Amino acid sequence: MLRWAIIFFIIALVAAVLGFGGISGMSFEIAKFIAIIAVILFVVSLLVGGMRGRGPRV
Fold it and tell me: What Pfam families does the database record attribute to this sequence (predicted)?
């Protein structure tokens, strides 16, 4: 998922350099949204993994 955010960010940078303001802004917003979703899923994964814990080693 983070890979998609990076791809859209690169598209936004290229579009900004070439002067396509609308495409650049839209790609940046998509990249930002996907990056936020990735961070939220990462935090949820950390919390669930921490609550589940590991059993005692024998």
Answer: DUF1328 (PF07043)
Summarize pLDDT for 18-57 with one digit per residue, the tens. 777 777 788 888 888 888 888 898 888 888 887 776 656 6
DSSP string, 4-58: HHHHHHHHHHHHHHHT-HHHHHHHHHHHHHHHHHHHHHHHHHHHHHHHH--PPP-
Cβ proximity of 24 and 16 under 8 Å: yes
Q: How far apart are CA 29 and CA 23, in angstroms?
A: 10
- Structural contact between residues 9 and 31, judged by C-beta atoms closer than 8 angstroms: yes
pTM higher than 0.70, yes or no? no
